[in-house]
Amino acid sequence: MEPGFPGTIWFGVLAALFVCALPLAYVLLMVRLGKLSDHHVSDRKERAPLLMLALVSVVVGLVALNLIHAPTSVSAMILALIGGITVLAAVSLVWKISGHASAISAG
């Protein structure tokens, strides 16, 4: 049986670093440097490379979690997120889609 909350909180914090904090920090840095139009990434051409970077960050996070033997439930959530990012990246090539709306509709 896997530990529940609060035993898994540090695994969640590590996951959040790779899933949220690092990609957001990259976006904010690129906006500040003038490489992205805005933090909403309104220009569709800018989205694919950013989503690929986010995907790499999430995969690296998954590897890190597996190396420290994170609970399967945490890894499963990351795997689901990888699937969502992949679909979002594919759709973003054709339509301007909201990542937040797609995540909420999946829940």
Describe this structure in words.
This protein has 107 residues and is mainly alpha-helical. The chain has one domain (19-106). It has 4 helices and no strands. The longest helix has 24 residues, at 9-32. The two termini are 25 Å apart.
Short description:
The protein has 107 residues and is mainly alpha-helical. The chain contains 4 helices and no strands. It has one domain.
Task: Fill in the keyword field for this structure.
0% strand; globular; mainly alpha; 107 residues
List the helices and strands and how they pair.
Elements: H1 9-32, H2 47-67, H3 72-92, H4 99-106
Model regions low in confidence, pLDDT < 50 over at least 5 residues: none
Distance between the termini: 25 Å
Beta-strand fraction estimate: under 5%
Mean pLDDT: 85
Any idea what the radius of gyration is? 15 Å
Number of domains: 1
